[in-house]
């Protein structure tokens, strides 16, 4: 859901969007979006090079902004197989960034080695961290947060963006679902049907 909203808001602002899909259903959903996504990279088979595909799409210049939902920090043998297959490696993201690019990451344990920092320095690129909970902790940011929520509501109301909802969970399963979320066994956001 986060990626879908980010894609639609970026398109509304005039950005050319390149996205990854982790399943055939996700790929089909992204291809049906209007306006269409410039390119959907299917990473479900694990053989696709995301950096190479992005550089090909941009004529070798790289992208201006990368918004990730997690990255692989180490080589494939050091991480779980499923995570290693679906997430891009941090070196791939640094490679596909263009000059003056911005990398926005949700990875809270990101570790950049000196060669990574040097590559970012040479490109004039920046790294930012996206932490959902931080908005609620800072009183200064409340106005920005409320404005973003207002824009999302207005875009949804005017059909500029369409949320991708998961299957709703019946109310009687809400407690079990919430326990799974707290133990990191399920997605953070769930739709509960009353």
Automatic annotation (TrEMBL):
Gene3D superfamilies: Medium-chain alcohol dehydrogenases, catalytic domain
Origin superkingdom: Eukaryota
Stored InterPro entries: ADH-like_C (IPR013149), CRYZL1 (IPR042633), NAD(P)-bd_dom_sf (IPR036291)
Domain Alcohol dehydrogenase-like C-terminal, residue spans: 3-69
Protein name per the record: QORL1 protein
Position of the signal peptide: none
